Amino acid sequence: MKDERTFRYQLEEFEPCNKQEEADKRLFLKCLSEGDSVFLRENEAAHISASGWVVNQTMDRVLMAYHNIYHSWAWTGGHADGEKDLLSVAMREAREVLTVDGHEKNGAYVPSHLHLNVTYLLRGDDREEIRTKEDENSNVGWFSLNNCLEAVNEPWMKERIYKKLIEKMGNLKI
């Protein structure tokens, strides 16, 4: 019997809303079938990351960080680094305030690789103090849902990810 808390179980129960999510689900399941190395960033071909689409209590603002590598505002997120509770990863990364091109980090070259990303809708208090994590971002801030799209410089993330998340938020039954 499957443990309802496992990521594989959650993924198998996930209902994709479009062809992109269907393909992503198939790829995730294939990678998971090859073992747990997909949870480690040492897997240079592909590894799992988790992101948080952090909204305020009224769900009209989103928390974003200015990502130093991509020179763009983005959701919060990071590598699983062996952790299989991806909600915990997304929450940890949100508290610290993503195909990835080759880049330099801490003086070392990181080759191009695929992030198998899981995104969670998280709620935060936009009245709390926020801070940057200087080795990863140079600013953090709350944006209205419309302004967050204007701030993003990465066309793929803006058009295929963030717009979809905003649309999904409009379909939530709260």
Any descriptors?
32% helix; single chain; globular; 3-stranded antiparallel sheet; 174 residues; 5 helices; alpha+beta
Structure description:
This protein is of the alpha+beta class. The strands form three sheets. The chain has a three-stranded mixed sheet. Strands 3-2-8 form a three-stranded antiparallel sheet. A two-stranded antiparallel ribbon has the order 5-6. A hairpin with a 2-residue loop joins strand 5 and strand 6. The radius of gyration is 16 Å and the shape is globular.
Low-confidence stretches: none
Taken from the alpha-carbon principal axes, the silhouette is globular
Biggest beta sheet attributes: 3 strands, mixed
Which H/E pattern describes the elements? HHEEEEHEEEEHH
Structural class: alpha+beta
Radius of gyration: 16 Å
Helix and strand topology:
Layout: H1 7-13, H2 19-33, E1 46-55, E2 61-67, E3 72-74, E4 76-79, H3 86-96, E5 103-105, E6 108-110, E7 114-123, E8 137-144, H4 145-151, H5 155-170
Parallel strand pairs: 1-7
Antiparallel strand pairs: 1-4, 2-3, 2-8, 5-6
